[in-house]
Amino acid sequence: MSWVGQSVPRFEDGRLMSGQGQYIADLAPVPGIRQAAILRSPYAHARISGIDMSQALALPGVFGIVTGADLSTILAPFPVGVPIPMKYFPLAIDRVRYVGEPVAVIVAESRYLAEDAADLIRVNYQPLPVAMDVEASVQGGSTWIHDDVADNLANHRTFRYGDPEEALKSSDLIVEERFFYPRNTGIPIETYGVIAHYDQSLGDYTVWANFHGPFTLHSVMAHALKVTTQKLRIKTPTDIGGSFGVKSAVYPYMVLMAATSRLLGIPVKWVEDRLEHMKASSSASSRISYLTAGFSSDGRLRALKLRQYDDVGAYIRAPEPATLYRVHGNLTGAYDVANVSLENFAVLTNRVPTGLVRGYGGPQLYFPLERMMDIAARKLGLDPADIRRKNLIRPDQFPYRTASGGLYDSGNYQQVLETALNEAKYEQFRSQAAGGKGPMRYGIGMAAVVEPSGSNMGYVTVAYTPEERARQLPKSGAVSAATVAVDALGGITVQIDSAPEGQGHETVVRQIVADVLTVPPETIRVIAEMDTATTAWTISSGSYSSRFAAAGASAVHTAAVQVRDKLLALAANHLHTDVKTLRFEQGRVFHGDEASSWTVKRLAGLTHWHPAGLPTGTTPGVYETSYFSLPNMEPPTATDLVNSSATYGFLVDVAKVAVNVETGEIEILDYVTVHDAGNLLNPLLADGQIQGGLAFGIGSALYETLHYDEDGQLLTGSLMDYLVPTVSEMPHSLTIRHHHTPAPGVPLGAKGLGEGNVMSAGAAIANAVSDALGTEVLALPLSLRAVSDITGKGGGQR
Amino acid sequence: MKPVPFDYVLPETLDELLEVLALGNNAKILAGGQSLVPMLNMRLARPDMLISLRRIPGLEGIEDEGQSLRVGAMVVQERFRRAVSGREGFDALSVGMEHIGHPQTRSTGTVAGSIAHADPSSELPLLLQVYRGSATIMGPSGLRNVEARDLFLFPYTTLIEPQEVVVSTSWPKPLRGTGSAFMEISRRRGDFALVAVACQIRINGERCLEDGVLGAAGVAGTPISVELPSHFKGQTLSEDVAQYWIQSLDPLLDPPNDLEASSGLRRHLVHQLGYQTVVEAERRAGGNKR
Amino acid sequence: MIRYGKDQRVAVTLTINGRPYRRWVEPRMLLSDFIRDEVGLTGTHVGCEHGVCGACTVLIDGEPARSCLRLAVDVEPQNVTTIEGLAKEPGYERVRRAFSQNHALQCGFCTAGIVASVWSRLENYEGLQVDWDELLSGHLCRCTGYVGIQNAIRDLQGEEREQ
Q1: Based on the number of CB atoms within 10 Å of its own CB, is B43 exposed (0-12), middle (13-18) or buried (19 or more)?
Q2: Who among A13, A20, A273 is closest to C99 (CB)?
Q3: I need a labelling partner for A756 at 20 to 30 A (CA). Which of A648, A660, B4, B249 fits?
Q4: B102 interaction partners in chain C (CB closer than 8 Å)
């Protein structure tokens, strides 16, 4: 029996269900740690003309206060992903640019005292005009947030594939709309946390933080601290309380606390509170999309033209403007269309800087794209299912090269669509639900989403022009590393590089290694916490872009195979036979039908106890590290073609909604989601990812928005106002189904699947609501207020 | 998010409590704290002194006084909810209290605390008005009783003076033949109401209206309520009667305009929910008797 | 009448998981901080400190309550139970099993609070109707979409009916 593919309950659950998880806030890794609080800007844009800390410093229990002026003596600005003259420090130097921007760090005996001291600091602010409207900025109508960044434009690029102008000219139907996808965020229930310790004698920094991809920004942090990477050691705790991408933006705070520890000469700990998190951690980019699409009269999509404006906040922060580029290779979604034009703007505003949030770049793309298909269907008198059937990439077209360079590795999109429609009883609903009852209107909607996983590091450089890229060293690849080691008594330890935040990697790794070495999963220990000084260094490691199933799992698998091969070679040597005649079963070497006395334990033991007896060329010990590189990961070409992800899954969602036109309330009656993510490593955990992703998607569709007023104040800055769905807001019924088209370039055939429903649900629900109301929804979230603006109930705006 | 430092005082009698309140410090009374402590943690409330009621005897009871239920200041919402659930005429109260926060906050939040906090979109102030209840307030000059309809002045502001404390609330038992109903629209389950409506109606054997109160929360600076207009007494509840009664709330409406709902939408929702609530209250009044 | 000054540390004795813990703390100290930082029971997690997320939920005299919304000094003389205490209860194994088999937790950060709420309705709650979704609505979980948690609860109820 194979462990991979089984719904194995998690090994992680035992400790987490007993209160024995070890999260960053629980740790005290060095003695003498003091607590930090951060004083933050109440203004969205202001000049700082003075900071009076005298009262705060006089408070007993306060160890010191660090301001931007102190910090600028030891830090360099963070490197950023675009060539603009913007200086980003983790603390405001002389000007604040968003509400919540750090202004001072206070270190005291307790967090209580640190907050007391923060209250006593007097900062003189001279408020400046704010820039909140991205389109106004691009048109030259806003104040400049950074003196040398004209019109707040951080990135502007145009792309042209095929002949979009000609294809639009010859189209029978042109759909033209403006869509808005709001700012929202991940809200992990655990906030950011950092512990920093500076060793004064060596000049070495050690930083503990709940960052799930420490290598990805290791060089960025080291650069800011003006040290080489070996002098910045980053450790992650065993457990991280969710991230959903958001915790990748903890890195400025890691540098901030590292510098604070150095300046004050003590180890410091900072645990972000929820209000800080809401205001000043990170956010998804909002997007305004102007979409023009040309269709032939029979519903074939001929051309797609997109103009996208992303609001990246007050500083463009690595890896931004990647929201615009993460899905560059799958810009055309599930549809076979060769003519595409794209214009991207990343615009600075006086809002919190943006970053990774589950689905990264996906919902911003698929909301307009999938709404467009429904709008076109309605205009052409086609069923939304039929227009998709006409345009989906066919099974015989795989591997399929998209207009923008994506290489869709495998799939059967028709099959997934038909399963989804069947499960949802689509035709039946269509024939029954005409009209509604009383104030209720019923609607059905779908979304078809190509889900990328395993990002190509090179895609980020699409933000540069080909000429600019030509002057840099090329970037590419999606690499993961893992180490499998066996000790003298046969104990197996696996070190992974994904720093999981609840995905269950410790369990899946056991399943994989148990299969290869034919030992029980419980005999394997998995080390998921990372240490940049001891974990195999890979720039692309960590948990993002749903990369574990394809990349991380492959590294584990190949490392385990290396161990197996070494042990089998040893056995072959001792049994004087060819290795091809041997195999492992139940942790023991079999020769034909005969079990030998050689077990994993005994073979590994030989390499430790008796290295002198090893055959020539065999090294002592069993410690195999595999660097696994996903295939087809080239850098962007001179014509801006890029395969932005290693593998592409597919899903179709069908949502049924009831809209109360009097109250504006929307109920999700039934939700069907059908995925093809290749082989599933653990179906129980795969479904968990889908359910969680869907909750995100529903939140973005109906509830969640980081809403700012015109002065740049955040109006939804607590969990009372920022509406994370509870169980009562989930669909009344949910059906999950799977197809399994293996990923051809991945040893275990698995693709990622945790983000797809974040990309699809907003579009599917908006399509269902549009169907129910007979109007076109062009913005999310669909609050009561938004629905009443459509229905006109309550007189619209007043 | 940690509270500012404050003195913590634990009076053992009401007299001691009044003594401390009379000092005129910037003091806050801590009953259940489910509204106060979040404000302390956010440092939006910065009291110099916190006075806990937990040691004062006699504030824990739910007493049946025949005509009404008297609820001591330290009775938690969940306990009161269970006490009235299933009792004749208290449908609106028990349903309404299910909308207060969550079981995990109702286990600690008190009935009197919610009344004294006077959040304009919270349920209990509205319910106290619709049940024609009152608050018993103790101060330097002794006890006084304030009818719910007079109690609430502005958002988060009541007639309770800084040197006073609510010692109990009184909930008149509806007379035989009374039905009541409560409806609320909130964004998520357990959130504060965008609009809440509560109603009690008493009818006679011929289903003619004898008495009624209709009120709403979330639509003005305080809960609002209106009596059944006297000229409807003796009539049955027609759609016209219901609509006229609901519209009699209009002069009292001053709904907020926020991200989730415009003022206009809130007005519309009062009318929508109001009608359903009145009809439901009348239906229950019928159902109770036969 | 007891009166503690704001600059004073006061002796607070709380019974947590059946054991008394006496600590000298400021009157303003939150119960959540007392449990975690003073007593060292880090299984109780702090997620929002304004009573919404539910991660810090513990049992106080058997009823679920937000430990971030209680002052430690004000909890005397009530009994507090945290997940560390529940994990030692004889009946807890079935909860652990139901949660694990239904994948009712991922990152585990909200889990201690959810388990406290669920436990309060499993034990000593005979005869009372439980609106499980209402109970669960008092907790935010960002990982599971709540599906696994609902399934775990369904399993636990099934077991109760069989008993």
Answers
A1: middle
A2: A13
A3: A660
A4: 54, 134-135, 137-138
Each residue's pLDDT tens digit, B161-184: 999 999 999 999 999 999 999 999
Phi-psi region of A225 (alpha: psi -120 to 50; beta: other; left: phi over 0): alpha
Q: Which of A111, A116, A783 is facing B260, going by the closest CB pair?
A: A783
What residue of B is the nearest CA neighbor of A714?
A: B259
The minimum CA-CA distance between A41 and chain C, rounded to whole Å, is 20
The interface predicted TM-score of the complex, written ipTM, equals: 0.97
**Per-residue confidence (pLDDT) for residue C129, from 0 to 100:** 79
**How many helices (H) and strands (E) would you count in chain A?**
20, 29
User: What H or E segment, with its residue span, contains residue C144?
Assistant: none
* Banded pLDDT at B244 (limits 50, 70, 90): very high
Interface touch B189/C65, C-beta < 8 Å: no
- Low-confidence stretches of chain C (pLDDT < 70) are 124-127, 163
DSSP H helix total and E strand total for chain C: 7, 6
Evaluate the CA torsion angle A211, A216, A221, A227 in order and state its sign. Answer: positive
Closest Cβ–Cβ partner in C46, C108, C142 for A21: C108
Q: Give A441's strand partners.
A: A436, A659
Which residues of A are less than 8 Å from B269 in CB distance? 663, 794
DSSP state of A354: P
- Residue A441 structure tokens: 């209107």
CA distance A66 to A261: 10
- For chain B, counts of helices (H) and of strands (E): 10, 14
Q: Residue A166: which H helix or E strand, with range?
A: helix A164-169
Q: Do C71 and B30 touch (CB under 8 A)?
A: yes
Q: How confident is the model at residue B290 (pLDDT cuts 50, 70, 90)?
A: very low
A716 to chain B: nearest residue by CA? B259
Q: What percentage of chain C's residues is helix, strand, coil (to nearest 5)? A: 40, 20, 45
* Closest CA of chain B from A19, distance in Å: 20
Determine the distance in angstroms separating the CA of C47 from the nearest CA of chain B, rounded to an integer.
11
Residue range A34-53: mean pLDDT, rounded = 98
Do the chains contact at A274 and C49, CB–CB below 8 Å?
A: yes
- Taken in order of first residue, the domains within chain C and their CATH numbers are 6-85 (3.10.20.30), 89-157 (1.10.150.120)
**CA of A246 to nearest chain C CA: how many angstroms apart?**
12
**Smallest Cα–Cα separation from A545: which of A434, A681, A440, A451?**
A451
Among A19, A685, A692, select the one facing C83 at the smallest CB separation.
A19
Closest CA relative to residue A237, chosen from A250, A255, A228: A250
pLDDT per residue over A664-722, tens digit each? Answer: 999 999 999 999 999 999 999 999 999 999 999 999 999 999 999 999 999 999 999 99
Cβ pairs bridging B and C (under 8 Å): 119
Is B50 in Cβ contact with C51 (below 8 Å)? Answer: no
Other beta carbons within 10 Å of A78: 21
Cβ atoms within 10 A of the Cβ of A127, count?
Answer: 13
Joined tokens for residue B202: 């008493």
Instruction: Sort out which chain B residues have CB atoms less than 8 A from A718's CB and list them.
Output: 42
How confident is the model over A437-442, as a mean pLDDT? Answer: 91
B267:A794 CB<8 A: yes
Q: What's A495-519 look like in SS3?
A: ECCCCCCCCCHHHHHHHHHHHHHCC
pTM of the model: 0.97
Q: Is the pLDDT of residue A423 over 90?
A: yes
Element (H, E) at B14: helix B14-21
Residue A778 and residue A176 in contact, taking contact as beta carbons nearer than 8 Å: no
In tens, the pLDDT along A478-511 reads 999 999 999 999 999 999 999 999 999 999 999 9
Minimum CA–CA partner of A683 in chain C: C103
CA distance A735 to C43: 34
